[in-house]
Amino acid sequence: MKKATTRKLAALLALSLLSTALSGCNNAGDRNGLEDSSNITVGIAQDLEESLDPHKAEAAATREILFNVFEGLYKPDSNGELIPAVAENVSISPDGLVYTFTLRDGVKFHNGNTVTAEDVVSSIEYCAGTNGNDPLVPAFSNISSVEKTDDKTVTITIAERDPDFMSYIASVKAAITPAGQTDADTNPIGTGPYKYVSRSVQENIVMERFDDYWGDKAYIGNVTFKVCADADSLVMNLNGGSVDMMAHLPVSQAQQLSDDFTVLEGTMNLVQAMYLNNDFEPFKDQRVRQALCYAVNKSEILDITSDGKGEELGSSMFPNFRKYYLPELNDTYSYDPDRAKELLEDAGYSEGTLSFTITAPSNYPQHVDTAQVIADQLGRIGVNVKIKQVEWNTWLSSVYSDRQYEATVVGVDASNLAASAMLSRFCSDAGNNFINYSNEEYDSAYKSAQIEYDDAKQTELYKQCEIILAHDAANVYIQDLAEMVAIRNGFEGYEFYPLYVQDMAKIKLKEAE
Known about the structure:
single chain; D-Maltodextrin-Binding Protein, domain 2; Dipeptide-binding Protein, domain 1; 3 domains; six-stranded mixed sheet; 13 helices; globular
């Protein structure tokens, strides 16, 4: 779990009054939903995806914002537990195939309508693709039926037992939305503590507190998520007062902030790596991939890019997935440039003959900085690396969707609290297998994990998948990035989650001292 402790940077210890944008707002907000005039502007590094339909959300940056608008039958809390949301409880049959959800009384959509069993059935069926389309939540292809038992009860039957099924139910992609809605792409209607107000593409998205929310009301009345895609101007936006909070800050930028901010530190809960297109001719050869792993000095990368902060990784699992994480894999390829040169020679690449391009998203300086250090390190063994910076939407289309790239530096996160969220993408037939990885041993281990009933045995099979990825050098694994969150003094209540989540409902104004 991300540490909730707030290790403030030395230069940021001073506490000041709230910015002029909040002048006159000196209460802590009203948890009971009484109107107040409090506002907060949150910087985000990229715009949300074109569609605001949560079921279609692929990018972590979209899901972490939509978390405030949408809820599933269950949802994760900041401790990594799955808690009731639209449903008040669930019972599971002894064979693990039938899930019976009792709906919470009085849950309302943001349009004022009360959530019904029909809405739940429609939402789950839509995610499962029972309308003939591909499932929007791949794990929901396991659903055999979704039935309204009565006005308060919905029963979901799955074809094969899946211990991770509840984690899928609790994801933003499994949100409950109104049945029959036809404009979900542009008019998101959920049940969360905030409701959608407006969007200006590439500029902002505005939300306001939903005072008919079934649970604890949000403290802050209005939230504006401001797109700050230009990393160079981000510090200016923060110090200048136009942005009150920003997550996923590089350490170098956090250190430039004025005393008006407190900086909280955790980890991002993602796997940053130099992901390799295994269909690119040189990377089809395991020896080449292993050579790159030996040539990259992870410790140096952390020192140069983040002042030593972050957690070194050796496979596609981050430390907060404690049950599945294997720290010993971090040493699978210890820094050994001589061994790297030997492997390249064996593969037929003499010094100076291997060249490739790293495509990096320009709006994430952490990834660009890492790519630059990697290029320098590989240059020391005679590998020629060029860096191509692209806008995020271009990265999504050319790298993630079309797989038209050679290597990329990016972070991959989990969409839910299941090991499969990190590992399913490396199956040879996975639609999101953007590195074109193909390994029969891996496919077999993953498939066995999916049908294993015993939790301990399933965990070991998932670990075996991680071991295969590490030893086969599927990618050049780097780190779980340090997570630096800057929040203007006068606000408090930020909580780290084990997933990509920005929970704005917990943030409030400090009491005047």
